[in-house]
């Protein structure tokens, strides 16, 4: 492989990519990921409800059709504004920090793409930052998604929750969200990187490999963490029917949420909406990684090409200089 070819390799792009590049690519990826699959996320929230509409069958298709038929064609999209408002900055911080930290945490001397421990640690720290922004957005989003939601808009929901329950209501599920997302993102990143090593060992820009790796990593991580997601939904929504059944004024903390889920729904209650969660995460994670890798490639392509041209010019000059020197020496020897 020539020097110029080496500079064209996709793997060289992160060296030219700035934090801003990763943040822009991450922000766009996060917004598209959540928007494209948002209707399925709405179904997942409904299926995780411990007190459901008795006339609604417990399946993804029936819940989706009932939402559209009874509440309007746009009902599955309700709350998307809150998700977009949170997903943009949250994913910018998430991907920007992950890309830097997976290198910073790699002390083994091996490639950062091969060090799964460093990737898991980087994903965990990135999750803490991501969830600090996304948790309040999740509260508003999920309250708008619930059956018979009393809120008409994102702003109305935010204002009423704040007046009735205070600022703490927006972070009531933060601990649970972190407990859920740290293993989720650690598994997600490690499986993604492992799949990339199998499907895309050269780390070239390869949309097919990004889709496969992203989809499998999202599905595995989603299935493993579904019980925690059910608890998070209960903490965020504080569903009136569930509070009444549990004889409580509010649900506080992961232990209280888990106990309530078990009392009302039994062991199977922890896996409500698992199919919808996997169905949501598999394509959304595939979309997220594909979009992120594309924009990272697109935003750094010009810089990489300039670097390649400069290197080629330097290499050419050095080669010409090397060719000239022996001739000069030979002439001096003759004299």
Notable features of this structure?
Mitochondrial carrier fold; single chain; 0% strand; disordered C terminus; 335 residues; 76% helix; mainly alpha; disordered N terminus; 14 helices
Polypeptide structure, described:
This protein is mainly alpha-helical and 335 residues long. It has a single domain (3-334), classed as Mitochondrial carrier fold, CATH 1.50.40. It is built from 14 helices and no strands. It has helices at residues 3-8, 13-16, 19-36, 38-47, 60-71, 80-104, 116-145, 154-165, 174-199, 207-224, 226-237, 240-246, 253-265, 274-334. α3 packs antiparallel against α14, α6 (80-104) packs antiparallel against α7 (116-145) and α9 packs antiparallel against α11. The longest helix has 61 residues, at 274-334. The relative contact order is 0.15.
Topology:
Layout: H1 3-8, H2 13-16, H3 19-36, H4 38-47, H5 60-71, H6 80-104, H7 116-145, H8 154-165, H9 174-199, H10 207-224, H11 226-237, H12 240-246, H13 253-265, H14 274-334
> Major β-sheet, in short?
none
The low-confidence runs, each spanning 5 or more residues with pLDDT under 50, are 1-15, 327-335
SSE pattern: HHHHHHHHHHHHHH
What is the CATH homology-level superfamily?
Answer: Mitochondrial carrier domain
Total strand segments = 0
Multimeric state: single chain
What is the structural class? mainly alpha
Q: Any guess at the CATH architecture?
A: Alpha/alpha barrel
Indicate the radius of gyration in whole angstroms.
Answer: 25 Å
> Helix proportion of residues, in percent?
over 70%
Q: How far apart, in Å, are the first and last alpha carbons?
A: 42 Å
């Amino acid at each position: 492989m020539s020097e110029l070819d080496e500079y064209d390799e996709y793997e060289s792009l992160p060296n030219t990519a700035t934090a801003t590049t990763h943040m822009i690519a991450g922000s766009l990826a996060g917004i598209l990921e959540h928007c494209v699959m948002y209707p399925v996320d709405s179904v997942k929230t409904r299926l995780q409800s411990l007190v459901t509409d008795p006339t609604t069958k417990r399946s993804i298709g029936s819940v989706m059709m009932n939402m559209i038929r009874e509440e309007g064609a746009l009902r599955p999209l309700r709350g998307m504004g809150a998700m977009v408002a949170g997903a943009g900055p949250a994913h910018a911080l998430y991907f920007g920090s992950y890309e830097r930290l997976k290198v910073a945490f790699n002390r083994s001397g091996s490639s950062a793409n091969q060090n799964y421990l460093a990737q898991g640690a980087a994903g965990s720290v990135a999750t803490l930052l991501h969830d600090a922004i996304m948790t309040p957005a999740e509260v508003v989003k999920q309250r708008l998604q619930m059956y018979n939601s009393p809120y008409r808009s994102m702003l109305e929901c935010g204002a009423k929750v704040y007046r009735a329950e205070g600022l703490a209501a927006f972070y009531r599920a933060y601990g649970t969200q972190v407990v859920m997302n740290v293993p989720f993102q650690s598994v997600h990143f490690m499986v993604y990187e492992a799949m990339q090593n199998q499907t895309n060992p050269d780390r070239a820009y390869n949309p097919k490999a990004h889709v496969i790796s992203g989809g499998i990593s999202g599905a595995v991580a989603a299935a493993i963490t579904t019980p925690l997601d059910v608890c998070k939904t209960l903490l965020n929504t504080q569903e009136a029917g569930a509070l009444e059944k549990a004889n409580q004024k509010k649900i506080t903390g992961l232990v209280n949420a888990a106990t309530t889920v078990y009392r009302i729904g039994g062991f199977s209650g922890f896996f409500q909406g698992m199919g919808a969660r996997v169905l949501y995460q598999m394509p959304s994670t595939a979309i997220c990684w594909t979009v992120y890798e594309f924009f990272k490639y697109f935003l750094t392509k010009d810089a990489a090409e300039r670097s390649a041209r400069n290197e080629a010019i330097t290499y050419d000059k050095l080669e010409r200089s090397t060719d000239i020197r022996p001739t000069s020496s030979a002439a001096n020897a003759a004299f």
